[in-house]
UniProtKB/TrEMBL annotation:
PANTHER family: ALPHA-1,6-MANNOSYLGLYCOPROTEIN 6-BETA-N-ACETYLGLUCOSAMINYLTRANSFERASE B, ALPHA-MANNOSIDE BETA-1,6-N-ACETYLGLUCOSAMINYLTRANSFERASE. Belongs to the glycosyltransferase 18 family. This is alpha-1,6-mannosyl-glycoprotein 6-beta-N-acetylglucosaminyltransferase. It catalyses: N(4)-{beta-D-GlcNAc-(1->2)-[beta-D-GlcNAc-(1->4)]-alpha-D-Man-(1->3)-[beta-D-GlcNAc-(1->2)-alpha-D-Man-(1->6)]-beta-D-Man-(1->4)-beta-D-GlcNAc-(1->4)-beta-D-GlcNAc}-L-asparaginyl-[protein] + UDP-N-acetyl-alpha-D-glucosamine = N(4)-{beta-D-GlcNAc-(1->2)-[beta-D-GlcNAc-(1->4)]-alpha-D-Man-(1->3)-[beta-D-GlcNAc-(1->2)-[beta-D-GlcNAc-(1->6)]-alpha-D-Man-(1->6)]-beta-D-Man-(1->4)-beta-D-GlcNAc-(1->4)-beta-D-GlcNAc}-L-asparaginyl-[protein] + UDP + H(+). Its EC number is 2.4.1.155. Keywords: Glycoprotein, Glycosyltransferase, Golgi apparatus, Membrane, Signal-anchor, Transferase, Transmembrane, Transmembrane helix. It is found in: Golgi apparatus membrane. It is a single-pass type II membrane protein. InterPro entries: GT18_cat (IPR026116), MGAT5_Glycosyltransferase (IPR052105). Residues 109-701 form the Glycosyltransferase family 18 catalytic domain. Pfam families: Glyco_transf_18. One of its GO terms (cellular component) is Golgi membrane. It comes from Neovison vison. GO terms for biological process: protein N-linked glycosylation.
């Protein structure tokens, strides 16, 4: 204020000098004087105010000095009360105080919480804001202990009007506009699905959850590479999935907050000002947070210790999945599984995938538009038997080596259509005999699929939504078989992804869970096999088909079940192997091939899926539990591993264990044939359906 007044005084002085100058100067002076009109005695009044401000500053300075003297006297009196206590319940306290002494100025957030460089402020912060030190006996404990009362539970009610959701989604980015258009187009299907599921669930009470959805890959801080490419044929799979997640959570009746910027995220979480080293300023107001790897990183950077406290509430949308060996930070680092992603030490079920390819994670999915019976009949009547549409909108897909050979064969039998993005002229990679429609809006693309007989993939992109849309519109999907299979060990696209999964075709879900007659997987390098497949497809009649899990109702049912049953904040189920074993709940199946949960054994409380559905098999050597379970028409269920992690399970299966060890290994529990050794799992986060070794027969739930 002093500086501003001094500046004004100088300007007034300059104006006075200008008044005595020549005519042009007077004009300039008048213009300047219009901004600072010099009233009678204004100079004197400014100088008087400046003197007052100066006096106030002096007095404030005296008060501060006096208060510091008082503070030092109080500190002297309390020095014995402000020493780091040696309490065995708080072993890190003295080390944290040392750290605070040296580093408390490294982040403004400490000062925000009242740290001022004194021992007392360190201990108050470390006992009341963080939790490394015991509460100080002379502090008023009521303020520290008064946790907010939990809000009364509200029942979630299905919603059918999505207009408020469209407002919540915001605008301004091409990606958000795309997502909103999709949601609007599917509104009637969501409403119908909600009615069906409501009838199935009957009077089941559903808690309304408060949910934050933070789409990290759309934030400017993560580069938002997707939005600019929406109109240029870029990948839309992630946006399709996020649009459907938002619709699902909203239709299920939960409270929703959506953020696509770091600033909004910080505001909603209650992040204190600073560099992100302090906990949140308030208890987390959300029961669940849905985000992606980018959002996870942003939360870790800005939530301080609160990240560790609340990470059990986070669900990570993770297209390709994260296997337990990559998720456990120490194990990944020691055994070569560390990547740029992974190593978060979450429960692997907190990662949610696009397709059900990794049972260690939860299958989130997305939806495809469902046809009614009238539409299905119309499509069957309007199909062109010799029309093929190529999967992929970017010109780079057409650079595939050797495509001329199989495209030449396809061109003999079918008219080939493309939907490749181009700005002014046809992309040079697209052959002249291909009819290219350019990038089509979704409704027009659906119309093209409804006429076509065949939807053909060139091997990339992997595991997108388009093949399901094509099959739902009555197309046959033809894709190439990969030999050897693609994985993070041999393929650039998968390198660095936190999974060792081997991909045997462009769309493994379509190959394994749908299959013929809707899906054909052939070797494109074998011209005879490729041509025979084209001929067979032309003779084959198929109806439009959509698996239940990709309908609106299927997705609503699945996410409802996760929200009702998955609780990663509760204490984990049965203890690892070291705990004394309760009476065994297992019996050997009548044909002596596997274990079952005994009918007279009570189910484990809180277990989901319910334990009576558990079956346990000893896999062949070199077989992963994922595959061993599929061999028996079953799905590997990692939440059942703790029940099998005991000597009793091996004994009941009549496995001859000469010795039993408990170690950290993502393949355990397992039996090693040479040496007749049995191994139990020491680290619950490493229970894994994925993974195999020729040395071990894995015990699989």
């Amino acid at each position: 204020m002093s500086e501003v007044l001094e500046l004004m005084a100088k300007r007034m002085d300059a104006l006075a000098r200008l008044e005595n100058g020549s005519e042009p100067h007077r004009a300039a002076g008048r213009l300047a004087a219009d901004r600072f009109p010099p009233g009678a005695g204004l100079m004197e009044r400014i100088q008087a105010i400046a003197q007052n401000v100066s006096d106030i500053a002096t007095k404030v300075d005296q008060i501060l000095r006096h208060s510091l003297v008082l503070h030092s006297k109080v500190s002297e009196g309390r020095r014995d009360q402000c020493e780091a206590p040696s309490d065995p319940k708080f072993p890190d306290c003295s080390g944290k105080v040392e750290w605070m002494r040296a580093r408390w100025t490294s982040d403004p957030c400490y000062a925000f919480f009242g740290v001022d460089g004194t021992e007392c402020s360190f201990l108050i912060y470390l006992s009341e804001v963080e939790w490394f030190c015991p509460p100080l006996p002379w502090r008023n404990q009521t303020t520290a202990q008064m946790a907010p009362k939990p809000l009364p539970k509200v029942q979630a009610v299905f919603r059918s009007n999505l207009s408020h959701l469209l407002e919540l989604m915001g605008s301004g980015k091409e990606s958000l506009i795309f997502m909103k258009k999709r949601t609007k187009r599917l509104t009637a299907q969501w409403a119908l699905a909600a009615q069906r599921l409501a009838r199935k669930l009957g009077s089941v009470w559903r808690d309304q959850k408060q949910i934050l959805v933070h789409i990290g890959f759309l934030t400017e801080e993560s580069g938002d590479v997707f939005s600019p490419r929406v109109l240029k044929g870029g990948p839309l799979g992630e946006m399709v999935q996020w649009a459907d997640i938002l619709a699902t959570l909203y239709v299920l009746g939960h409270g929703l907050r959506i953020t696509v910027s770091l600033k909004e995220l910080q505001s909603n979480l209650g992040v204190p000002p600073g560099r992100g080293n302090c906990p949140l300023t308030m208890p987390l107001p959300f029961d669940l947070i849905y985000t992606d790897y980018h959002g996870l990183q942003q939360m870790k950077q800005h939530m301080g210790l609160s990240f560790k406290k609340y990470r059990c509430r986070i669900r990570v949308i993770d297209t390709f999945g994260t296997e337990p060996a990559y998720n456990h930070e120490e194990y990944a680092t020691l055994h070569g599984y560390r990547t740029n992603w992974g190593y978060w030490n979450l429960n692997p079920k907190q990662f949610m995938t696009m397709f059900p390819h990794t049972p260690d994670n939860s299958f989130m999915g997305f939806v495809s538009e469902e046809l009614n019976e009238t539409e299905k009949q119309l499509i069957k009547g309007s199909k062109a038997s010799n029309m093929a549409v190529v999967y992929g909108k970017e010109a780079s897909i057409w650079k595939l080596q050797g495509k001329e050979k199989f495209l030449g064969i396809l061109n003999k039998y079918m008219e080939i259509h493309g939907t490749v993005y181009y700005e002014s002229q046809r992309p040079p990679e697209v052959p002249a005999f291909v009819k290219n429609h350019g990038l089509l809006p979704q409704p027009e693309f659906q119309q093209l699929l409804r006429k076509a007989k065949l939807f053909i993939g060139f091997g990339f992109p992997y595991e997108g939504p388009a093949p399901l849309e094509a099959i739902a519109n009555g197309c046959v999907f033809l894709q190439s078989r990969f030999s050897p299979p693609h994985s993070s060990l041999n393929h650039e696209f998968f390198r660095g992804k936190p999974t060792s999964r081997e991909v045997f075709s462009q769309h493994p879900y379509a190959e394994n869970f749908i299959g013929k007659p809707h899906v054909w997987t052939v070797d494109y390098n074998n011209s005879e096999e490729f041509e025979a497949a084209i001929k067979a497809i032309m003779r084959t009649q198929v109806d439009p088909y959509l698996p239940y899990e990709y309908t609106c109702e299927g997705m609503l049912q699945r996410i409802h079940a996760y929200i009702q049953h998955q609780d990663f904040c509760a204490a984990s189920g049965p203890a690892p192997a070291a705990a004394p074993a309760p009476p065994s709940p297992f019996v050997l199946a009548p044909n002596a091939t596997h274990l079952e949960w005994a009918q007279n054994a009570s189910s484990a409380p809180g277990a989901w899926p319910p334990t009576h559905s558990l079956r346990a098999w000893l896999a062949a050597a070199g077989r992963a539990c994922t595959d061993a379970c599929l061999d028996h028409g079953l799905i590997c269920e990692p939440s059942f591993f703790p029940f099998l992690n005991s000597q009793d399970a091996f004994q009941k299966l009549q496995v001859p264990c000469d010795s039993t060890e408990s170690e950290m290994n993502h393949l355990y529990p397992a039996f090693a044939q040479p040496g007749r050794e049995c191994f139990l799992q020491k680290e619950p986060l490493l229970f894994s359906c994925a993974g195999s070794s020729t040395k071990y027969h894995r015990l699989c739930p």
